[in-house]
Structure formats: structure tokens, C-alpha cells
């Protein structure tokens, strides 16, 4: 399903001559092709599944955020703005992410359900959140919330 969405968005961007979206979608397709080729070497011919593609997109967003921090540190707001545009395009393919309040509610529910009582249980709570909210929860943002709730 996501593969078709990439192709559709690529064609739309070509028609309206949206260079920013076009380059980002091409970047996504190149990364997807790279992952598919790596999987073929391991004997998986069907390529990445949609949940795996979503994980790949999350990784790309993380890389963009790291680049933004470096560009801002290096006084390059033009390049940081370009990375923000890429994030917006990539996020448009993902399901809506949980907000801060929803993240905290999910963390509280997981803590209660697992009976977690201290920081030693953080790994179990994070694993439960990863399993239940795959693709909709940024674990990088959830970790400090879980740490605060358990601490």
C-alpha cells in the first residue's frame, strides 16, 4: 500500500513541478530499493512489508532531525528548512503520531497493565509501547515520559 502511495505522490509532484516533494519521494524510493536489495541477499524476495517501510520512514525522520540540529548549530538555517520540508513529506506517508498527552496516557496504561514500579521495568514498558503503538508512537519522545513516570 505504501509503495503505491510513493509512486502516486511521485507522479503528482512531477505534474505540478514540486521539486521539494519530488526529491524527497525519490530519496524514499532509493532507500526502499536499497533495503529490498539487502533483503534479497538474505533470501527474502518479497521486499519490505508496510510496517517495515514505516519503520524505515521513522528512521529517515530521525536522521533529518539530527541533521536539523547540526545545521542550526552550524548557522545554516536554509539547510535546516530543507530538512524540515523533507520531514513534512515523509510524515505525510505515516499514520498520525500520538501527541504528548496521548503518549503520556499510553505510557501510564502500559505501566499500570505491566505493574511496573521502577526504572528497572523501563525496558518492559518500552517494549510494550513499541508493540502496541508501532508506527504511531515516537519512542524517542516516549522514553523520557516513561522515565519520569517510573522515577
Q: CATH-wise, what's the superfamily of the largest domain?
A: Uncharacterised protein YqeY/AIM41, N-terminal domain
* Gross geometry: globular
Assess the beta-strand content as a share of residues. Answer: under 5%
Along the chain, the helix and strand elements come as HHHHHHH
What is the third-level CATH name, the topology of the largest domain?
A: Hypothetical Protein Yqey, Chain: A, domain1
Number of helices: 7
The unreliable regions are none
Count of discrete structural domains: 2
What is the residue-averaged pLDDT? 89
**CATH class placement of the largest domain:** Mainly Alpha
CATH architecture of the largest domain: Orthogonal Bundle
Structure class: mainly alpha
Q: What is the helical fraction, as a range of percent?
A: over 70%
Rg measurement, Å: 18 Å
In total, how many beta strands?
0
First and last CA, distance: 41 Å
- Summarize the biggest pleated sheet: none
What's the structural blueprint in terms of helices and strands?
Blueprint: H1 2-16, H2 19-41, H3 50-73, H4 77-91, H5 100-114, H6 122-132, H7 139-150
Helix pairs in contact: 1-2, 2-4, 3-4, 5-6, 5-7, 6-7
Structure description:
It is a single chain. With 151 residues, the chain is mainly alpha-helical. The protein folds into 2 domains: 2-91, Uncharacterised protein YqeY/AIM41, N-terminal domain (Hypothetical Protein Yqey, Chain: A, domain1, Orthogonal Bundle); 100-150, Arc Repressor Mutant, subunit A, CATH 1.10.10. The protein is built from 7 helices and no strands. The protein has helices spanning 2-16, 19-41, 50-73, 77-91, 100-114, 122-132, 139-150. Helix 3 runs antiparallel to helix 4, helix 5 (100-114) crosses helix 7 (139-150) and helix 6 (122-132) runs antiparallel to helix 7. The protein is globular. The mean pLDDT is 89.
